[in-house]
Protein: Phosphoadenosine phosphosulfate reductase
Organism: Neogemmobacter tilapiae
Amino acid sequence: MSDLSAPSAPLTDAAARALLAAFGGASVASFLDVAGTAPALALALWRQWRCPLSIACLSPKGTWDADRSAYIAALRAGGVPQDQILLIKTPDDLRSYDLIANLAGFGDSAKIALLSPHLPQILHPGSRMLTDIRKGSGSYPELNRLGKAETLAEAMVGGKTVTRALFQADATKLRAAPKPTQTTDKSDWAELARDLAGPDGFFRDNGRHSFLFVPRSDTLVVTFDNLDIAMEKRVDRRPWGYSFIEKQGWSMLGAMANGWTWYRDPWVWDQFDELAASGFFARFQRVVFYGASMGGYAAAAFSAACPGADVVAISPQSTLDKTIVPWETRYRTAWGQDYSGRYGDAAKASASAHRVILLYDPFEKLDRGHAERFTAPNVTFLRALMLGHRLGSSLLQMGILQEVTLAALNGTLTEPQFYRLLRARHQFTRYQRELFKRCLDRNRPDLAARVARWALARGDSRFFRRALASL
């Protein structure tokens, strides 16, 4: 464990990379250094995943006035753009994050009690935190009420044992924890959306869902997003795909959900009915419905409002009606919604589209189950093996999301073109590891060894060095 760096010791670049390897290769879309002590880790993280880096100004005394200028300078010197660095100056600026660093911080050199009130706010189910825990600090009871900590390394510091651990939040425990005060002011979104719409667009809002229309060219892209993600996890606080669509000069209609609703709201259905009846969609030469996961479901389902439109859906659900998909075990919060009506079953609703491009990983059993329900002849299946449900994030990390999306939204994406671009996965850590694990699962250590050597030929990897040595 020495290459993980001793707890409480300065984090070297090599140790930062080792910590990321210990993290398991899971993709990261958001990062917070709550203790402000790990710029090397933040830099390694940005180089691997290009995610925004948040740095808390929380001092060891619990005040929000810590100076992070040296930290920012280190990131800028390492090539991180200024707009990817977010200073968290008040508790209200905190959001939930995929990965959190708390090294030589709260529970080690500072009291865990100063961080505890913020933990339910910065954690979401599946969040992980790299943290140092000094024996006798009281950290374990605080962490155990929200998840589980796995030891990575230990060292004696000042006569006491300090453990470097990887903590993972537990969904059930998080739900049972006292909820933090709501910090996202939805009026912020309304004000921002009205500015984006301008005098020629529109913004409609019923509190639970909203529609933003930004007019540009005679190509319209209809997107679907979650308000909390847009406002809390994106640097520009824009809807899904906004900047990309703006760059192409296309018009945009963005449907926003205030929560994980799957847009099962009669008001939303009425809005699409009204837009269709008023001739709104008919004003455009080309209309494309675009979304991922919940948004992918909505893109396919609500395309029924504009027969002849194109659909680009990434890892979509077809429905969450348990009488139709009893095998779906995810998204329990939305199981009780009403999935009846013309916009209920996305697999059927999208049959009136001109073309449905459905991107998914067939090795994700549940995603494959939904994809197989899309049986209309207008569906083009683009299969991205071993890249997971968060396929958009994987394509982004591989550097091909923009090219794939542009061609798909333009209507020019072909299967040969997609699979040619997908060759970039050969350099992608997740794909390499999934391929290796599948060889082992099939009791083929000889093939696993070939995969490990193949991956090492493309770049050094502690994971594959150790794996190869153990075979």
Observations:
- Confidence is low (pLDDT under 50) at residues 180-184.
- The chain has three domains: 2-176, 186-423, 428-470.
